[in-house]
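Try this one yourself first.
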C-alpha cells in the first residue's frame, strides 16, 4: 500500500499518534469532519473547473463566430 509516497508503517504510526493526541472516542468524529471537508473542497474544485471550462468554450465560440463574419475583436 503506497498512499502519496507513505508506506503502511508510516500510516500506522500517524494513526497511533492521532489516537494518542485526540483520543479514541473523538477519532471517528474527526475522520467524519475531515471527510466532509474533503468532499466540500472536491465539489468546489469541480464547480470552479466547470465554470472556467464553460467560459473558455464560450470565448472560443465567440472568436470563431467573429472570424466567420470577418470582424476583428
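Now uncover the answer:
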Amino acid at each position: 500500500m503506497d498512499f502519496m509516497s507513505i508506506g503502511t508503517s508510516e500510516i500506522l504510526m500517524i494513526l497511533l499518534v492521532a489516537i494518542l493526541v485526540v483520543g479514541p472516542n473523538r477519532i471517528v468524529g474527526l475522520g467524519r469532519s475531515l471527510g466532509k471537508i474533503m468532499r466540500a473542497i472536491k465539489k468546489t474544485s469541480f464547480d470552479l473547473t466547470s465554470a472556467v471550462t464553460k467560459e473558455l468554450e464560450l470565448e472560443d465560440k465567440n472568436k470563431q463566430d467573429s472570424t466567420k463574419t470577418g470582424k476583428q475583436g
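Discussion: The helical segments are 8-22, 27-69. The chain has a mean pLDDT of 85.
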